[in-house]
Amino acid sequence: MENKDYYKILNISKDASEEEIKKSYRKIAMQYHPDRNPGNREAEETFKIASEAYEVLRDPEKRQIYDRYGIEGLRGTGFTGFRGFEDIFSTFGDIFEDFFGFGTSQRRRSRARPGADLRYDLNISFLDAAFGKETTIEIPKNVTCELCGGTGAKPGTTPAECSTCRGTGQVSRSQGFFTISSTCPHCHGHGVVIPHPCKECRGNGRVRKSNSIQIKIPPGVDSGSKLRIRGEGEGGERGAPSGDLFVFIYVEAHEFF
After folding, report:
1. Distance (Å, rounded) from C-alpha 20 to C-alpha 23?
2. What is the number of structural domains in the chain?
3. pTM value?
């Protein structure tokens, strides 16, 4: 990721509140949303960069890392930005429903989000790059809770249909000739609630663990090469697929080559 000033991108001060960050992002998102600017590449890029900035600054932990170490610090958390609009809409689905959400009460509940991709930087020697090597790395990440299988519910119980939205994940209200739909505030769009949370994951469906992953480095690999290991990223929400792990290879200089 190139160096970017996320505060400048969102036109906010470095001590901006959570509400000010959201308000500024909403203004930019509404102006540059791809549905409002079909075929406008410049608007698309502005929308993507603003979404990346909002993803970092809305998260207290990521914001603290960014404030102290900049974008380089975020690399260690696995944050690599968004690959495309699908990632943005998947991450901020609830927000866009609130921003632009005209529809009917028949909207289906939101799907569980897949896990995020992770990044790991691996330094290897010149000889290991030349001849190849198998090595093991440790990755701290969120994984599917084994006790509840990712449902978030205590074993022997199941999630219950949300009584507020009746399982649709959406609530509606009339405003003039329109019906305005927004994400259900009780179940957050899932359509279900967890009456009896799992004691291991506390209803989240995921737990934080350090995983050992074996990496096979092919002979002749160049510095800056990227290895993709499918399914070794963050665990998905409520049993959704895991993301991928991207290992970036950096070859150390050799004194004779």
Report:
1. 5
2. 1
3. 0.50
